[in-house]
Amino acid sequence: TLFRSDMDWLLNEKDTALHYYKKTIKYNSVHKDAHLKLGILYKEKKQNDLAKKHLETAIVVGITSDPFLYLNLGIVYGRLGNAEKEIQNYRKGLAINDEIADLHNNLAISLMKNGIYSDETIEHLLVAIELNHEKKENYYNLGNAYLNMNKLKLAHNAIEKALEIDGKYYEANMAMALILQKQNSINAASKYYEVAYEMNQSDIGLLINYGTYLMDIESYDNAIEKFKKVINIDPGNLKAHFNMGILYGILQKNSLAQKEFKKVLKLDSRNHEAYKYLGVLNAYVSNYKNAFKYYKKSMAINPSDPENYFNIAVLYEQKGNIK
Question: How far apart are CA 119 and CA 276, in angstroms?
Answer without folding.
Answer: 41
